[in-house]
Design brief:
Blueprint lengths: L5 E4 L4 E13 L2 E11 L5 E9 L3 E12 L10 E11 L5 E13 L2 E12 L2 E10 L2 E9 L4 E8 L10 E13 L2 E14 L5 E12 L5 E12 L7 E11 L3 E9 L4 E12 L5 E12 L5 E3 L3 E6 L2 E11 L2 E11 L2 E11 L9 H9 L8 E10 L3 E11 L16 E9 L2 E10 L3 E12 L5 E2 L6 E8 L5 H5 L3 E16 L2 E17 L4 E13 L2 E11 L8 H4 L8 E10 L4 E15 L3 E14 L2 E16 L30 E9 L4 E5 L2 E14 L2 E17 L2 E15 L4 E8 L5 E8 L4 E8 L4 H10 L10 H14 L6 H10 L3 E5 L11 E2 L2 E2 L12 E7 L4 E8 L5 E8 L4 E8 L3 E6 L5
Parallel strand pairs: 39-40, 39-41
Antiparallel strand pairs: 1-2, 2-3, 3-4, 4-5, 5-6, 6-7, 7-8, 8-9, 9-10, 10-11, 11-12, 12-13, 13-14, 14-15, 15-16, 16-17, 17-18, 18-19, 19-20, 19-21, 20-22, 21-22, 22-23, 23-24, 24-25, 25-26, 26-27, 27-28, 28-29, 29-30, 29-31, 31-32, 32-33, 33-34, 34-35, 35-36, 36-37, 37-38, 38-39, 40-42, ...
Length: 919
């Protein structure tokens, strides 16, 4: 019989064959001789001979070319070339042999060559396999049955050459021995540099496995993992070890490890592979213990049953605690492609997830300082097949929300709840918040979830959230921003958020009245505010935001307040239009006699206009302001406390946490100081005027303009100097203006004083006189009010002049200061920290300040004047800049390491010092 065409149709595929073969039926034996089958699209060509002896015996011998298995299994990129020979008896038991050879073939898109011979007879099997794919090799030789052993070896230096995922390398060697029906396995394996598609990586895995299929076969497994990293650093393991001991049907499993943050992880289980009532083979046992350190803080409260079978998983009911939340009746089931989970939780504190500091978590958990954090309870019941169905309910059980880590004032939540129903991936429900000061907030939710790659909000499907809020007291907002910010007022919001989560929009009115915003630390205060705004298709339109108010505090300088009326209120008005999704838009601001600083020592009222232009990752700030009146007293300012110089701070990095993209901020501010800008502090008292243009970015600001002092005095070192000229010229970095300052002492027959030039970074200080004099004469007139050589001139006056010179030229080394020191006959002038500085002992260490038995700590810094008498003797005179502390010390160098120090003055002492120098 000869045939020219065959059509084979399956459930989802149709295969057209062009065939050429001879059929011969004789004595119940069907022979297909010289068979040639070709797929109609030319993707395969099979040639060979087939013999069928009824239903008992089959013999096949042939070749195949370009056999495309992707036509049978979708997505399987496999094309085979080679030959096959099969001789098998099917009944009463399968006995026979099969030989397959492959050349120039592809398996899942990877090259494949090799051969495989298998023989099966009388409860024994013989195998000879040798396959290769590029650098990977799989070999297996031997057999199973009484007294037989099969050895195998897999070497894959590059896993990517044989499988799409993971990448890395793997090596495995072992044996399979014993009876055909109950083989026993022994294997050693290693893997390194593994990278998975979900972003996880593992540096290395080593494994040793010994076990068998029989129920009483000994089982011994040990696996070590190092360098595991997940996208979430908290779920990464620095190292872990899994150990199994016992038999196939009864064994224990123990997993121990350490996370990257050095937190412990431990799990213990007992059970085994057993047959159930339905003869299904499954692992049945109990999760005895499970725990992990921060941040999960997981503890299993009681043993939990676990069953793992083919096509099904069952865990629970379980009871455990995580991050202070108690979970009970938790069950997870998977059977025939359907997942389901249910459970109950209580004691959930949302503020536990505030990652700003570890201290924040500790305060929330312990309720330190009288804080009672918000706690929730709830339940869930969810089932997932192709779609998600179930319910989620959450409600408040106690506590409140606090704005800052150290804040003790709660927002004022009295009730809170959420109820969601899920039907075929559609989520509907309501949420509500109540509070005496907070008011009420209600939301109606309608959205969809996407279950294609986990459970998440469907980004491209429509959703809607209707928000209706009446907020009688907005004071709870301030602590959320900063403990120093206070906000008062009332408001209302009625908004519909719709569109899709990927492209949301919002519409509805926003109103607020009686607004008051103050920044306590800086004295900033905005009062009597109203807000009229609307959300229009995702754009925030501020029709008007107005603040009015008069200065509530009078400054210590009356002249600064003379230009400002305490009866006529100032005004701030702002309008804006901002697209919330992209944060693009603009803000316009106008100010009229607006009090911005409201402290007696920091007081300012300004007028002008400005605005902000927003673009993605960019903000441009511009303003043109004039100061109506200002008073700044910086004598109360305190410099930041600093650690000693021998302390080095190394800040720990947080792996896996990418820094947010920086916002590019540019400024263009034109400032006019006006005619009533007064300053005082550090001996300086003056009025400033002038104008500045400040442009650039924070940290790189450039300034152009001039600031002048009008009148003014400088009080320092017992003298009152009149500022005749004070000019700061800005033409570059804002922190480094050019200086042009002249201050003279009044009431003398000559003009004498100090001039300062250069820049703020490198000031040049010179003595000034008219008529011209030597520096020594200038210093005598400036400090003593008379020329040198007068009555009473002695060592004490010389020391006073030296101290004044040191203060004037502190940090400056030039020909003028050097010449003056030589004229005074001294070798050293220095400014030292506020402690007896004649001792050579260190003043500060990590532990704090060191004091000798006879030393004292002065209230201010010291001016030290030194003179070397010879190679071994050094004389030092020290005078406190403020205070009466005075010291004279003579240091005699006995040897390289021993010094004798005699000290007289406010304290008297004799010290013998041994010094050691080291790196």
């Amino acid at each position: 019989m000869r045939s020219g065409g065959v059509v084979v149709a399956g459930k989802s595929r149709r295969i057209d064959l062009a065939a050429d073969f001879n059929l011969l039926l004789r004595d119940q034996v069907l022979n297909i001789e010289t068979a040639r089958l070709r797929l109609a699209d030319g993707s395969a060509d099979l040639t060979g001979r087939v013999e069928l002896h009824g239903t008992r015996t089959v013999r096949v011998k042939g070749t195949f070319v370009n056999l495309d298995l992707a036509r049978m299994v979708k997505g399987l990129d496999t094309r085979l070339n080679g030959g096959v020979e099969l001789d098998a008896r099917l009944r009463p038991a399968i006995v026979g042999r099969a030989e397959v050879s492959l050349t120039d073939s592809r398996l899942m898109g990877r090259a494949l060559d090799g051969r495989a011979n298998v023989a099966l007879a009388d409860q024994r099997i013989d195998v000879d396999i040798n396959l290769a794919s590029r650098s990977a090799r799989l070999t297996a030789h031997g057999g199973l049955g009484a007294g037989r052993e099969l050895t195998f070896e897999l070497i894959a230096p590059q896993l990517a050459e044989i499988v799409p995922q993971p990448s890395g390398s793997i090596t495995a060697r072992g044996t399979v021995s014993g009876e055909f029906a109950a083989p026993q396995l022994r294997m050693e394996g290693t893997a390194s540099d593994l990278k998975f598609a979900n972003g996880q990586t593992i540096d290395s895995i080593t494994a040793s496995i010994a076990g068998g299929a029989a129920a009483n076969a000994p089982l011994a497994v040990e696996m070590t993992i190092t360098g595991h990293r997940a996208p979430n650093p908290d779920a990464s393991l620095a190292s872990a070890t899994l150990i199994a001991r016992g038999t196939t049907s009864e064994h224990t499993l123990e997993l121990t490890g350490t996370t990257l943050s050095k937190q412990p992880v431990r799990m213990t289980a007992s059970g085994g592979w057993r047959s159930g009532a339905a003869q299904d083979y499954a692992w049945r046992g109990t999760l005895v213990a499970a725990e992990s350190g921060k941040p999960l803080d997981l503890r299993l409260s009681e043993p939990t049953p676990v069953t793992i079978a083919r096509g099904s998983v069952s865990v629970g009911p379980a009871r455990f605690e995580a991050r202070g939340t108690r979970f009970s009746a938790v069950e997870i089931q998977q059977r025939d492609g359907r997942w389901s989970t249910s459970g109950v939780f209580e004691g959930l504190a949302p503020q536990v997830f505030d990652a700003r500091t570890t201290a924040a978590r500790r305060v929330v958990r312990t309720g330190a300082g009288g804080r009672q954090p918000l706690t929730l309870r709830g339940r869930w019941e969810l089932a997932l097949t192709d779609t998600l169905t179930g319910v989620i309910v959450v409600e408040r059980t106690g506590g409140d929300i606090y704005g800052g880590i150290d804040a003790l004032t709660p927002i004022g939540i009295s009730d809170l709840g959420l109820a969601l129903s899920v039907v075929s991936n559609r989520v509907t429900g309501t949420a509500y918040v109540r509070g005496k000061a907070l008011g009420r907030l209600d939301a109606v939710i309608d959205a969809y979830v996407d279950t294609s790659g986990g459970i998440q909000i469907a980004r491209t499907r429509p959703f809607r959230i209707d928000v209706d809020a009446v907020l009688p007291d907005l004071s709870w907002i301030g602590p959320l921003i900063s403990d120093s910010v206070q906000i008062e007022g009332s408001g209302s919001i009625k908004t519909a958020i719709s569109g899709t989560p990927a492209d949301p929009t919002a519409s509805g009115p926003i109103r607020a009245t009686g607004l008051r915003i103050s920044y306590v630390e800086q004295g900033v205060r905005l009062e009597d505010g109203t807000l009229d705004a609307n959300l229009v298709d995702g754009v925030l339109v501020v029709n008007e935001l107005v603040f009015t108010g008069t200065p509530r505090v009078a400054p210590d300088e009356e002249r600064a307040a003379e230009a400002v009326s305490f009866e006529t209120p100032g005004r701030l008005r702002a309008v804006a239009r901002i697209a919330l999704r992209t944060l693009t838009g603009s803000v316009g601001i106008q100010a009229e006699r607006l009090p911005v600083l409201q402290r007696r020592d920091r007081w300012m009222v300004v007028s002008g206009e400005g605005g902000i232009t927003l673009a993605p990752q960019r903000a441009e700030l511009y303003a043109k302001l004039k100061v109506d009146g200002a008073y700044i007293d910086f004598s109360r300012l305190r410099g930041a406390r600093r650690l000693p110089n021998d302390v080095v701070i190394v800040r720990a990095e947080q792996p896996g946490k990418a820094a947010p993209a920086p916002v590019d901020i540019t400024l263009d501010v034109r400032g006019d100081l006006g005619s009533r800008f007064y300053i005082r502090g550090a001996g300086l008292e003056a009025r400033l005027d002038g104008a500045l243009d400040i442009t650039g970015r924070p940290g790189q600001l450039l300034a152009e303009g001039n600031v002048r002092t009008r009148g003014g005095t400088y009080q320092g070192y017992g003298q009152r100097l009149q500022i005749q000229r004070g000019i700061l010229t800005f033409q570059g970095p804002v922190e480094n203006p050019a200086l042009n300052v002249l201050a003279v002492r009044s009431g003398l027959p000559v003009d004498v004083g100090v001039s300062i030039g250069g820049t703020a970074a490198r000031p040049i200080v010179r003595l000034y006189s008219d008529p011209s004099m030597t520096d020594v004469e200038k210093l005598n007139w400036l400090v003593l009010g008379r020329p040198p050589g007068g009555a009473g001139d002695g060592g004490q006056e010389r020391a006073l002049l030296s101290a004044a010179a040191s203060a004037l030229f502190a940090g400056q080394v030039d020909s003028a200061s050097t010449g003056l020191m030589q004229s005074l006959g001294i070798d050293e002038i220095s400014l030292r920290p506020g402690q007896d500085s004649s001792s050579i002992l260190p003043r500060e260490t990590v532990a704090g300040t060191l004091r000798s038995a006879t030393g004292t700590t002065a209230a201010s810094d010291f001016v030290a004047i030194g003179k070397r008498l010879n190679d071994d003797l050094y004389l030092t005179f020290e005078q406190a800049i403020s205070g009466a502390a005075t010291y004279v010390a003579l240091n005699y160098q006995l040897s390289r390491r021993f010094s004798l120090i005699a000290r007289a003055g406010t304290t008297t002492a004799l010290d013998l010092v041994y010094s050691i120098a080291f790196d």
